[in-house]
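Co-fold these.
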Amino acid sequence: MLTTALICLPLLGALSVFLLPAPRMWVGSLALFFSLAELALWISGLTRFDFGSPKIQFEQQHSWISDLGISYHVGLFGFSLWLVGLTVVVMTAAIAYGLWSGRERANAYYALMLFLLAAIVGVFTAQDLILFYVAYEAMMIPLYVLIGVWGGAGRLRATFKFVAYTMAGSLLMFATIVVYGLSHGFDLATAQQSGSVWLFLGFAAAFAVKAPLFPLHGWLADAYRESPPEVAALLSGVISKVAVFGFLRIALTQFPGPTHDLRSLMLALSAVGLVYGSLLAFRAPDIRGVVAYSSLAQMSLIGLGVFAQNELSLSGSVLQMVNHGLVSAALFLLAGVIELRSSSGALSRLGGMARGRPILASLIISIGVISLAVPGSNAFAGEFLILAGVFQQGWGWAIPGLVAMVLAAMYMLRLVSALLHREVGEAVSKKAPDVLLPELCVIGALLGCMLALSVWPAAISKHSFACLEQAPLTSAGISSQSKAQVGLACVPGTGSTTATTTGTAK
Amino acid sequence: MIRTPAIDWLTLAPSLALLAATIASLMSAVLVPERRRKNVSWFFCLAGYAGAFAAAAILFDRSPHSRGVIANALFRDRYGALAAMIVAGVGLLTTLVYYGERSTVDRVGERFALLASAGGGMILFAQSANLLTLFLGLEWLSISLYVLCALERERPEAIEAGFKYLIVGGFSSAILVFGAAFVYGATGTLNLAQIAGKAPSGDLFLVTGLAMILVGFAFKASAAPFHTWTPDVYQGAATPVSGFMAGATKAVALLVALRVLSLSFSAQEHLWTSAAAVLAVASLVVGNLAALVQRDLKRMLAYSSISHAGFLLFAIAAASSLGTRALLYYLIPYGAASVGVFALAALHERELGEPATLDNLAGFGWRRPLSGIALWIFMLSFAGFPLTGGFVGKVYLFAAAYRSGWTWLLIVGAVATLVSLGYYLAVVRAIYMRPVPDEEAAAKEEPPLLDRMLSTAVFAAVVVTVGSFFAVQPLIDLAKHAASQLPL
Amino acid sequence: MLGPAIAWYLVVGSAIFAIGAAGVMLRRNPLIMLLSLELMLNGANLVLIAFARRHGSLDGQVFALAVMAVAAAEVVVGLGLVVAMARRKIEIDVDLLSRLRK
Amino acid sequence: MSAGNILVWIVWFAAAAGCIGSALAVVALRNALFSALALIGNLVSLAVFYLLLSAEFVAAAQVLIYAGAVMVMFLFVIAYVGWNLDIAWTGGPNWQTLGGVVAAAALLAELVVVIVLGAANDLKHSNKIAVNFGDPASIGRVFLSNHLLAFEVISIVLLVAAIGGVILGAQRRRERTGGIR
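Predicted complex below.
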């Protein structure tokens, strides 16, 4: 019931927000209320969640299209709980930010945001392929309009690119799902694994576009630049995680053979994307560009962890997904805050914002420092786990990771110095105030989450793959490859028996 | 002594209801005073469609086994009954939308009479069990539609459109008759159920007849390359009538085609499934590419309906029970969305006094929030997006095509869907994202037109479009019962 | 049966049908298009009746009669449209004339 | 070959020449009036075929109703609107003309091949028929028994066409009250 409630509450909210005939502030407040209620609901789920059990929890299943064996099947397990939490937190921050910055056409705006929330939660909780696809596509409906109506000057071009790229991927996935589902079953908990490289590529293409991975990132910069800041925060913070979730939940677990065969290719793409994204971030001329391309780099790093496919890298990837979600959301909201105080986001025309604005400076510095993975921060924990795992896969793969960590330090420090130090930029008005209380609350809350995770990163990394704890993998006699299989075996639907048989077959 | 066959009145009831409505509306054109004429004839038409729907539902309930009635002229079965329900439902909504059409001040009785009569013909066509009844049903509906299209006097191109429709329609039915003649020559019977098995499967006359009958149906379903009439006719006809043609005519043409092919040409299955696949690809290519460049909303929708014919032909190419169910299911949200979207186009036209284009739709979604959302939903349903019945329909069609071995059709379908987003989302972009010329002033000047009938129809269409996504099972059950009566 | 076999009739019927089809596709005079449509239907009718003779069943003849009735119906509507078109053309001409006079 | 048979052959060839010649004339003539007259010729020569195929009732109907009534209506309309009416027709470029000829020729060739191949099998034989085959009484019997529904539906089709003809052909009310400007 809880899962269905998590999906339906925002939908109910969207409807009531849309129909509420009230001024902007009231409408936004109602939306914020709904997202806070969603947050409370999630926390109540968190307290009742049994992290030791590898089963799907809060499960619910109803027949939907019985003819094809498609059902409404939702539930939470391991890391999907954390991703739902990330979604709810970032969405709450985004709505609060939108409320503060006062969006036009408030009814439609907040209704769409809540609808988007329901769709994303739906993706993370769906246990049926068609239901997964439904939620996956349903995200596009509000996103298209959110960017297209409330976006910047180049929004139409941005939406066109965004839709063209993502729909090309997801329609391919749609055909693949039909083929796969009819031959292997639609229900993820019971579907059989497949050895078809083509089907794997059908799924992988869609997720690689959405993440995005290296050659398929053409839509990224435009979409991140032209969106309203809070939508950009959602795009890079949450929606890119949907793709990695898809890799973990479907592409890897259902296709162990093809994943193994194509692992080097995927690792190589991730590695190229990591370095390439970092370089682009270093050269980007504006705030959003830096954050957007750093997001590309971070997603590639997570991809590296996912495809290295062992216990360390997988736990690290999940942790880093949450970390990056919080960091990039905070950075995009900060970008919004700065854009409000200046006429431009171009770094060459900004600068000297630290003078007289201590809170802004400390926010930027602390989030920047976390994002470049300073030891002790949550991002450090995530990246360290990923790199350690990747090192196990082959030490050569860890080199781009290390290079990228250096580059990350460079582009982040460049961003911080371009914003805060140097001469006062021409685009910065002298009167522009420091961070105001509402802004501080929103970004501070995100920062608080990051700090909490810095203190206790194991909350996520140890509680994502339930069976890892039960069966310690460090024991001798298990090769790194079958470790990977066991790691994925913790995702519901991949019985450990299947995993061991495929392991021995290899 | 001539032994007249027993009449099964229940089978006839849906089309008889509409025939009665035709005659009643026609009478009211003469007997009712002018100021009340419109309401009276409109009411008869509406009642006719409602009655037809109810009769078809009862017929569905009481025909668990397919059998020929009235000397094997009609089938009494659930397949035909479900087709009749789809036609009656689309007709009911169309009648609601048609009420407010500006041109319906002139010859109003005849208009509603023809609207009812077209539905009657469609139902008879869908139930027909021999080639003669099939042909006559087809002509009944076609001739009604020719006139109905041409009646739109305010549109200068309406008469030309009607004439073009007549010529192309006559051309296609001549081909159909010629094909029927050859089938008759090969088998010596007109009865659909008896054609199969009467001649060897490679019989040249039979195959020629099959090819020509297929072409005739392809014209009616506006599948490429037999689609050339569609854009002109949809653009020229009264907007609600275009919706009726898109939703109902195409539906019955494809349903009857599937029945005839599966029943009478089961031995030639490899031929017509391949032909259907080729037609499907051609329609998808032509419809989607041509729709991309249209600015006129109705013309764009016409091309979109061509591309939908392509998707629906997947079901015929599949030639399976699953394909039949897919076809029957798909037609329900598709029909509702067709009527709905043409209703909104009509609404916009009535307000503006000129045809709806992507340019003058700017700001539509903000001026009328609910209509905007409805238009959005219909577009998403056409594009096969989730949360609309179009999505489930597409899942079904793709599944049917895959099960029958047409894997490459899935790829074509996916690419076509991607291209189709180009024009469906263009409508969404037009109504929400284009800059609105002095919106404040326009909002103050005149409140948007409120047409209660039209709003009801649009609301019902939205309910069906969205509802068919959630409540799939009841519709599947209907389709399952109906599909089980075809020999597939 | 006296005279040529059925096949000869079929050839003539097909020829008439094809000539009619060519007429519909080639001619742009609405009246001649309608006439060509009639030709197509007549070709089909000849084939129907020839086959009826071959099978010795009346179904084909009945079908041919139905086709004749339908052809008449199509002609009625087609001619109605032609008249309406012609009248509209006259209207336009009259409009044009009156505008020219001003 | 008996004398009767030779006579039938001669009649057949005359009718076939009339049929095809008049059909070509319908399509080829510029003047719609002459086309219509050619169609009447076509209908009459077809009626000869029908007689040879023992379809007396159809032949009679063809001459009386089709050539008689329908074509007269045609002639009236041609007289009313003029023979050279041209409508603004979208499309109709040259390639379409060419395509039309090619398509029709291909159709004809295909049909002839089919018929010739079919004739090689069993088209030479026809079933024996009763004496009253195709006379009005037998047709009427079929219409009232096996094809009763078709018979009724024909009347509906004609009714609909009549409605259409009346409202399309009749003058607009506004014009009648306001007169032609």
